[in-house]
Structures are given as C-alpha cells and as structure tokens.
Amino acid sequence: MPRPTQRHFSNKRLIPEKRLVMMMRKLTKFNHTMGFQITHSNKPKKVKPFSCPNNDDDNNGGTNGGSLIPDDVPGYASWLEKHPSALNMFDSITKEAKGKKVVVFLDYDGTLSPIVDDPDKAFMSAEMRMAVREVAKHFPTSIISGRRRERVKEFVQLSNVYYAGSHGLDIMAPPRAVKACDKKGNEGAFQPAKLFLPAIQEMSIELEDTIREIQGARIEDNKFCISVHYRQVPPKDHEMLKEKVQSLVGNRPNIRLTEGKMVLEVRPSIEWNKGDALNYLLDTLGFSNAKDVLPLYIGDDRTDEDAFKVIASRREGFPIIVSSIPKDTIAWFSLRDPSEVLAFLLRLAKWKKSEIHFFK
What pathway does the annotation place this protein in (predicted)? Predict the structure, then answer.
C-alpha cells in the first residue's frame, strides 16, 4: 500500500475514540496534580505516584498515565507527517483490510500496559483486556514480548491468543487453535533456542552477583533471555552497569547483548527475533503463502523493529509504533501511548463486528 499521509485530516473534528483518549489524559493530569496515580490491577485503587520518567525515555505514557510529554514536543508534528496516527488513518487502514485476513500481533510493555518503575507491576487495565479479547474474537491475535511467556500470560489472562515470550524464543498456541506438538504428539512450546538454556541460566547467576552492589539494578529471568533493568539506577551509574554487563558477556560464542528501553538484554546468539516469531506464527496459522493476509503489529520498543521490517518487506500490512516522542522507526503508522492503543483496538473490533453484521 502507498505510504500514508495525514495532511488532509482536520484536527477540528475529533472521532469519539480520540475524545476518550483526551478525557483519559485530562483525568491523569488531575490525579498527577493531586499526587495520585491509578493502578490497573484486578482491584483498582489510588496509590502514591511512581517517579516520572526522564524526558529521554522512549515511552512516557501508559494506560494509567496518558502521555506526560506536552503536545508541542519538538519535532513531533513533523514526525507525525511521516508516521501518521493509526487513529486518524483508521478509515484508510480498514479500507485496505476489507475482504482480507488481518492477523494481529501485539507487544506487551509500553503497548498494552504502561511502562512502570517495577516490572512486576506492569498491569494491563481491565478495559485493555476486554479490548484484546474482543479483537481476538475476530482476528488471530498474538502477544510477542521479551518477558517470560508464562509471566505475560499471567498479566494478560486470556485464553484466545497466542503467547510468545523471550522475544519470540518461546511460543505457545492457545487451547483451541493450532497446537505446537513434540515428536510424540504431546502439546508443547516451540523453542528454537532450547539448547542455549543452560548457558542462559548460568549467565543469570553470574549477573546477579555482578550487579548486586548497584543501587536500583534488577535482574528479570525471562527463561531464554535475561533482562537487566536499570530504570531505577541513578543516572551516574548507568555506564558503570553497562560496562560490567558487557564485560561479563564478553566474546562468549553462545551469548549476545542487546539494549532496549532502560534495559539490557542477554540473549542466545541465535538468528531469531520478533520478526521471525511473526513469520512462524503466520506459518502455524496457515497464512505464510496467502496473498490476502495483512499482518498488523503494534509495539513500542527497538526489538519490535524486527517485526516492522518483516511487514515492510511484504509491502502489505500495518506496522504501528507506539511513541510519544519522535524516534527512528520503519513503522508506517503511530499511536502515542497505550491509551491510544486501547482506542485503536476498540475501534478495530467494532469495525469488524459491523462488517460481519452487514453481510448477515
């Protein structure tokens, strides 16, 4: 499809979903001013606010916060010309998708849930869960995260989606869909880096010892990759932490180091990423050779760019970046924060429902 543009769209007439997003942001600003934030666990409550992310953070928004970046952030308007809002371009997207098979892929942190100081508290809202459930009723839907697959499933709590953890190194199908099986026919996960697991587990122990003395540093064992979070590490210690981790990884032939948003990722040195996971899932669903398939991927992190590349190479589909600041990306469309992701997913499900009713 041709590169999108939003120059012909007017900001004077806001769609209902955009009004919802603006209302959520205003409510957030009020709570922030009053010294509260809204959590999105199963029992919402007001708690003391978490620390505001730095302006150089790749994602400063969330379903519980909206964007904390002002609308006049330098360069954002011109960036939107190149990566127009998927909400503003929704009619063009659905026009392209009409009569075709849309397959949905979603990142978790920063996309379905807010970016928070404590990774264990990155809860998705009940509204977001409902939206994902509705989307999955109408489109094959997968969540591809850098987290441990079991942990993502605990957060999402839905049985009608695929779960891919460790940046796609650990993939499991939902109960009533195509199942991954071992040679004996037993249901199991697809794990292309299984042979690397002992090396990853050994590295996890060494990393714990290495960063123990660094204030705010945290290790997250994601099974096939290890995340070293430094969001709560004092800025003056960031380089020291990176040097320690880089020194530990060294030139080990079976381990490599990548970097995300305030996190270092220790991963197996295998040519496999979220883009490969996307292709694997399309193949598992029987869509690999179909010409009428349009993958739709929404993500906010550098690791999601691999999935965007796969869609861009197909020249059909919808790569959507979640960001409240200008950033380098090959995504064609954008959403500002998880609140806009929520609005987009709700609208996508509503569109499909109306299309189904029309043909009945």
Answer: Glycan biosynthesis; trehalose biosynthesis
Give domain limits for the chain.
52-186+273-359, 194-268
What rounded mean pLDDT belongs to the chain? 81
Confirm whether 107 is a catalytic residue. Answer: yes
Torsion region of 2: left, alpha or beta (phi above 0 gives left; psi -120 to 50 gives alpha): beta
Q: Are 315 and 326 in contact (CB under 8 A)?
A: no
Give the residue among 158, 141, 152 at the shortest CA–CA distance from 297. 141
- The residues near 17 (Cβ < 8 Å, ≥ 6 apart) are 87, 343, 344, 346, 347
Task: Choose, from 107, 300, 301, 337, the residue flagged as catalytic.
Answer: 107
CATH of domain 194-268: 3.30.70.1020
- 52-186+273-359 is classed CATH 3.40.190.10: no
Token output for 301: 């992190």
Q: What is the spatial distance between Cα 131 and Cα 327, in angstroms, rounded to a whole number?
A: 27
Side chain identity at residue 196, one-letter code = F
Sequence-distant (≥ 6) Cβ neighbours of residue 211 within 8 angstroms: 217, 219, 228, 241, 244, 245
Query: What tens digit of pLDDT does each residue of 99-142 get?
Result: 999 999 999 999 999 999 888 999 999 999 999 999 999 999 99
